Amino acid sequence: MKKRNTIQKQIILDSIKNTKSHPDVNELLKIVKEKDSTIGKSSIYRNLNSMIEDGSVKLILTNSNSKRYDGNTSNHNHFVCNKCNKVIDIMKEETIDKKLEKEYNFIIQEKNTTYFGICDNCILKKNI
Amino acid sequence: MKKRNTIQKQIILDSIKNTKSHPDVNELLKIVKEKDSTIGKSSIYRNLNSMIEDGSVKLILTNSNSKRYDGNTSNHNHFVCNKCNKVIDIMKEETIDKKLEKEYNFIIQEKNTTYFGICDNCILKKNI
DNA sequence: CCCCTTATTGAGAATGTTTCTCAATAATAT
DNA sequence: ATATTATTGAGAAACATTCTCAATAAGGGG
């Protein structure tokens, strides 16, 4: 007997999968509570963490002090507004250049690529 | 009369510029306190924020709950360990591929690119 | 079906990070 | 030197996230 299916998990996963707004925990809680107002914030944190663990949800890193989540796990990039922290999907095939900047009406100030994985030290320590 | 030069600013900027460890605020505070033990945490936050504002320091986004800072503002990418959150510089010219993975002894699990800038809405609202 | 076990939940406490407040200090222009 | 006022350090306040725990409910075995 391992993981159990609960209504809470279903609603949370369903909610994050069906929004394009890349919500943080408070915003997601609001969406979730519309479907079941009894669901608590702890369950959002708990379940998002395990969904990130198993890869069914992605973490988006912005400049704000709260984490944002993306239910779209397909390989794509993001544009983050330096003023309002809004996150917008940039599909992988698109090439960011002057043309794209014009198309979206953004001002692109910086491109930031980060590789995530396991470092040499953690591999040695079998910290995997 | 606008910005003033202070010993605190000098020590903080000097400290972040002279470490490759991509410290968070607590780690940077420790380094700073070795040079002047009277400098307080508020000054670290205050000055880092303004240094980010004017571009003399960069923010690094990891999976942990605290922000990390990089005094190296040259165009380069990062590798972040998913276990210990250590951040390692990846120079721009290098191409991430199997060869590189072997060279560094990493396991690369994900590549994440984010474009930062000003979104259409904020441009309209002249929120710049 | 109905137990039994135990994973999961919601509420709130605890912890951690970042910002805010304010009197004291010190950097600059005069 | 003095006056003005940006900056400071300490702690309070505001958030974000994790932890704790009694109550609930999922799902396997009878």
Q: How is the quaternary structure best described?
A: homodimer
Radius of gyration of chain A: 17 Å
Overall geometry of chain A comes to globular
CATH fold descriptor of chain A: Arc Repressor Mutant, subunit A
- CATH superfamily descriptor of chain A: Winged helix-like DNA-binding domain superfamily/Winged helix DNA-binding domain
Mean pLDDT, all residues of chain A: 90
Strand neighbour order, sheet with most strands of chain A: 1-2
Number of domains of chain A: 1
Helix fraction of chain A?
Answer: 25-40%
* Helix/strand order of chain A: HHHEEEEHEH
User: What is the number of helical segments of chain A per DSSP (H or I, 4+ residues)?
Assistant: 5
Class from secondary-structure proportions of chain A = alpha+beta
Distance between the termini of chain A: 24 Å
Unreliable stretches of chain A, pLDDT < 50, 5 or more residues? none
Strands of chain A, total number: 5
CATH class of chain A: Mainly Alpha
Do you know the CATH architecture of chain A?
A: Orthogonal Bundle
Question: Features of this protein?
Answer:
alpha+beta; two-stranded antiparallel ribbon; 37% helix; DNA-binding; 5 strands; Arc Repressor Mutant, subunit A; 128 residues; homodimer
How is the topology of this model organized?
The structure is a homodimer of 128-residue chains.
Chain A: H1 7-17, H2 25-35, H3 41-53, E1 58-60, E2 68-70, E3 76-81, E4 87-91, H4 98-104, E5 107-118, H5 120-124
Antiparallel strand pairs in A: 1-2, 3-4
Chain A binds a DNA duplex (30 and 30 nucleotides) through helix 3.
